[in-house]
Write a structure and sequence with these properties.
single chain; 427 residues; alpha+beta; 4-stranded antiparallel β-sheet; 3-stranded mixed β-sheet; 9 helices; 33% helix
Length: 427
């Protein structure tokens, strides 16, 4: 009885073990077959199942067939770059910027899936491709430097310089105004950067790109002169034609059509610039160390002095002014303003509520400077310049009148002139 039970038990274990061995052997056979199949696929030279581009299957294609597919897709996505602005059309061809699809790179990527690794790794990659799919992204390359150069050429056509608003005097000293013009400038770097992604990823639309250049505001806008309605102050002096007269004309051109906004300080030297031969100035009479002499720019002090008088009549505030060593012949004592490159400047500040605009005219033998502004800023007062003291030591006052009544009186300065020193003997 015992022997029989033991025999039955051993037989049961034997049958169970045999079954397990058969199952294991079957799995081994199937696994070996799968691994062999994986190696066959990897060595076939064809793209594995599930790989695609733009939804188009690539499985079973060899390298040359895959390259043709990528070339066809790329050719359909490579096209002229078209831009439009203000009724004009500009184009850049793919050849001009070397824009082309990276076919070889995409083909290599497609061929790499399911191969190149271990047998087990290849099997896993092939299975993932087959069950989940694998997308190959076709990209492109282009020459960014060439694109920038082409865009610069387009920008040159689009560019428009701004034009300042202008005030001028018509017949009867009527103020005439010309509106300013807003300029246009295409930001090439910004445009090139916006094209980088669509060019590289072949997503650039064939539709024309509407260019949007930036506005360039003029220095003097139409709004800057809208409140100018009168001549606040003006002054004229006289000169003889010649090299000195030419210098006066050149400097007057530099200060004309300038705007001075509230709280701004106007610098004569900064505005006119150095009085040198290279700037067009000629040799003419000047004062150097208290002596009559000649140098480039002689006569320019007459422009600064004429401007000084117009500024005073306009109710503006001088902040830097120096008299000549000896009296000038073109303005009354105490009303001159000498200037010298890098040494002496004439400056004034606009303390009025609105902008003022400078005009200067030099022609024939007359120099006239006008300060245009808003009449209400002077409150209806008339400005008078009054001198006290001797011609060698004059004191200057600015007096505001309302009719015969003095509204305000300002002491400006007291000058002290010296007799001119004799000219130096020439070598």
């Amino acid at each position: 009885m015992e022997t029989s039970e033991i025999q039955k038990f051993n037989m049961k274990n034997f049958l169970s073990a045999k079954t397990s061995m058969i199952a294991a052997a079957s799995v081994a056979v199937v696994g070996a077959g799968t691994l062999i199949a994986s190696n066959v696929v990897a060595d076939s030279g064809e793209i594995v199942s599930g790989v695609r581009v733009d939804g188009r299957p690539l499985s079973g294609l060899n390298q040359s067939s895959a390259e043709k597919v990528f070339n066809d897709i790329g050719a359909a996505k490579i096209h002229n770059l078209t831009f439009t602005y203000n009724g004009e059309t500009f184009q850049i061809t793919p050849e001009e910027i070397n824009w082309k699809p990276q076919t070889a790179k995409a083909t290599q990527e497609a061929m790499s899936y399911g191969r190149g690794g271990t047998t087990l790794g290849n099997l896993r990659d092939q299975f993932n491709c087959m069950t989940g799919g694998r997308d190959v992204k076709l990209t492109a390359e282009y020459d960014a430097a060439l694109l920038t150069e082409k865009l610069k050429g387009i920008a040159a056509h689009v560019h428009k310089d701004p034009v300042n608003a202008v005030c001028s005097l018509g017949n009867g000293d009527v103020i005439e105004k010309t509106p300013g013009v807003i300029g246009k400038e295409l930001n090439v770097d910004k445009l090139a950067e916006s094209l980088k992604d669509p060019l590289s990823n072949l997503t650039l639309s064939k539709d024309a790109i509407a260019l949007e250049p930036d506005d360039i505001m003029p220095f003097i806008t139409t709004e800057d002169i809208e409140n100018i309605d009168s001549i606040l102050g003006s002054y004229s002096t006289y000169y003889s034609p010649g090299d000195r007269g030419y210098n006066i004309w050149l400097a007057s051109e530099s200060i004309s059509h300038k705007i001075v906004k509230p709280s701004w300080i106007f610098s004569f030297n900064d505005t006119v610039g150095p009085r040198t031969w290279s700037a067009g100035y000629r040799m003419a009479g000047v004062i150097i160390d208290g002596r009559p002499d000649t140098d480039y720019g002689g006569g320019v002090c007459q422009v600064s002095s004429t401007l000084y008088n117009a500024v005073l009549y306009a109710g503006l505030t001088p902040t830097e002014r120096t008299p000549h060593y000896f009296q000038s012949t073109y303005v009354a004592p105490g009303r001159d303003a000498t200037v010298a490159d890098g040494q002496l400047d004439f400056k004034f500040r606009n303390d009025l509520p609105h902008n003022v605009y400078l005009l200067a005219y030099a022609g024939g033998s007359t120099l006239s400077v006008y300060v245009l502004g808003t009449k209400a800023d002077l409150g209806g007062a008339e400005v008078s310049l009054e001198t006290d003291g001797s011609s060698m030591s004059p004191s200057l006052y600015r007096v505001y009148y309302n009719g015969n009544d003095v509204v305000k009186s300002e002491y400006l300065h007291t000058d002290s002139y010296q007799p001119p020193k004799p000219r130096r003997e020439q070598d």
